[in-house]
Structures are given as C-alpha cells and as structure tokens.
C-alpha cells in the first residue's frame, strides 16, 4: 500500500471524523503530503554512497482562510504529516539529521486553496561535531538555512557510514530564501519515484488524465492541453489559452506551461514547469485536471 494511501486511512479514523468537516477547504491534506514528498526529493543531498540526507523541518504556508480552518488541528495534522514523511523516507532510503517536524503558518499573500512549502535540515542539538568548512567562494551559508544542513553537522548514528564534516560537492549553499554564494551550483540529484508495490518487473506504465470525470488516455510521449481544436485534449474554458500547457510522460513525468495567459497551478503552486506524480492536481483557467499513472 502506498505511503499517501496509508496517510489518508489514518486521517479517516482521527477524532471521530472531526477532520472531515475541516478538510472541505480547497487545500486537502493529501495535497500537502504530496508536496512534502516532493520537497524531500528536490532537496535530497548525497553525503556518500550509502547516505542521502533530506530536510526534517517543514513549514506549510496557507492562505488566511485555510489557516483559520486548519490551525485548531495543526498539532494532530502536523504529527500525521511527519509520520507520512518518515514512511516515505524509509521507502526511498532517505535519512534525517534530526527529528521530523511539520508546522502550519499563515501567509497573507496566498489565495484560498494555494499553499507553499519551505524546508530546512536541522541537526539534533544532542549530537554535534566540529563546524563544517566554509562554502565555496569563502562565504558561509546561513546556519540551518532552508534546504541545507547547518554548519554543525551531527555525529552519525551508530553503525552508519562516516559522514564528511564539509558539505559534499554539488550541495546547494543557502537553500530556500537565501542567495547562493559564488557561482551557481547544480541541484541535488533526485531519485526516481519508486514503482508501486507489487508491480511486475518490466511492467509498462499507463498514463492518463481526468477532467470532470472523463478519462483521456495519454498514448504518446507528449500531450498538449488547450482551447484550440489543434490541442490533443481540448478544454472549453475561457481562461484556457489555445495551447496552454504540455504534459511529457517519463521518469519523472513533467508539465510545461506554453506561454499561456493565466498560467498553471500544480498541486497548489503557481509554476511554469513541475514534476507530476500520480494524483497531481493541475488547474488551468477554472478547470481542474487530475494526472494519473499506473503500472500494468
């Protein structure tokens, strides 16, 4: 059973259905859970062959209306989201440098149904060793900066492979909200999404999208969505451009805005390009598109 499915099932039994009323807001907990998984993938840092470190401290920024709905339950929801991150990390063979925490915060610049996720790597205060060497260019990244381990790297758990005191080549100094000192550094490598449990070796992946309950199979590598009759899937919505965006299947699958007027929103975030996972919600104009993929 997938990590997100287990997370949804745990939520169903909490507080005798209290969450069912709260989660009628546009932001759904499974969307936040998916965003936390992507945050781990996008900020994974390879320390050595056997150790890939991901953030352990997450801040989910919500619009004022969504924050007011969810904040009374932030403690329970934060615990469930942290448990989901722990399960996902175990599945992907990720490790942490400290305890996992998920916090909710209000962001006045976000509209209802939109959210942002910030993350950082915080070391456990009980295990510290010598400060890390300065980053490339002579500048030291901000301590505990988002997406980057703090200067005081912890001693690794018993039996773990040796961990370098200095950041590994290719790590991104600064991380979220901080400028990168020196020349631009390449992003940390991402692991491909794990195949669903029970999938047969060499099984073919099927791709499709769902719009208003109608399934559209993706039989080619690319699929163009738009209002034009030339688009592969036509969406009759005045907020959709003639050639609005393009879905490209693969490992991973991606979506690219094609210079549309109103842009695209993927899993609650405005973007021009994003990685897609099974269940990703794409909003074009006033239309919601659900991206799906499955083995078999």
Automatic annotation (TrEMBL):
Keyword Phosphoprotein in record: yes
Residue ranges, compositional bias (Pro residues): 148-171, 180-189
Gene3D superfamilies per record: 2.60.200.20, FhaA, phosphopeptide-binding domain (DUF3662)
Residue stretches of biased makeup (Low complexity): 130-143, 190-201
Region (Disordered): 121-201
Keyword Phosphoprotein attached: yes
PROSITE patterns, per the entry: FHA_DOMAIN
Keywords annotated in UniProt: Phosphoprotein
Name the record gives this protein: FHA domain-containing protein
Species, as recorded: Streptomyces spinoverrucosus
């Amino acid at each position: 059973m997938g990590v997100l499915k287990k997370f949804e099932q745990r939520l169903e039994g909490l507080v005798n259905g209290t969450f069912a009323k709260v989660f009628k807001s546009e932001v759904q907990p499974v969307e936040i859970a998916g965003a936390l998984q992507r945050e781990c993938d996008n900020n994974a840092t390879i320390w050595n062959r056997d150790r890939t470190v991901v953030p352990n401290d997450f801040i989910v920024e919500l619009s004022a209306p969504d924050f007011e709905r969810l904040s009374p339950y932030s403690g329970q929801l934060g615990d469930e989201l942290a448990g989901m991150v722990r399960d996902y990390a175990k599945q992907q063979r990720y490790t942490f440098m400290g305890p996992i925490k998920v916090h909710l915060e209000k962001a006045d610049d976000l509209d209802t149904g939109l959210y942002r996720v910030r993350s950082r790597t915080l070391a456990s205060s009980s295990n510290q060793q010598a400060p890390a060497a300065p980053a490339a260019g002579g500048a030291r990244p901000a301590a505990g900066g988002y997406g980057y381990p703090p200067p005081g790297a912890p001693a690794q758990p018993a039996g773990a492979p040796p961990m370098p005191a200095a950041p590994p080549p290719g790590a991104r100094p600064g991380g979220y909200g901080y400028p990168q000192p020196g020349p631009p550094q390449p992003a940390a490598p991402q692991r491909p999404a794990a195949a669903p449990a029970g999938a047969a070796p060499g099984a073919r992946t099927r791709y499709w999208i769902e719009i208003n309950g109608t399934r559209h199979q993706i039989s080619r590598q690319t699929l163009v969505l738009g209002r034009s009759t030339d688009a592969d899937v036509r969406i009759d919505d005045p907020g959709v451009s003639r050639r609005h965006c393009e879905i490209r299947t693969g490992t991973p699958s991606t979506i690219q805005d094609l210079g549309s007027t109103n842009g695209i929103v993927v899993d609650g975030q405005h973007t021009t390009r994003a990685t897609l996972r099974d269940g990703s919600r794409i909003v074009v104009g006033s239309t919601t598109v659900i991206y799906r993929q499955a083995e078999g």
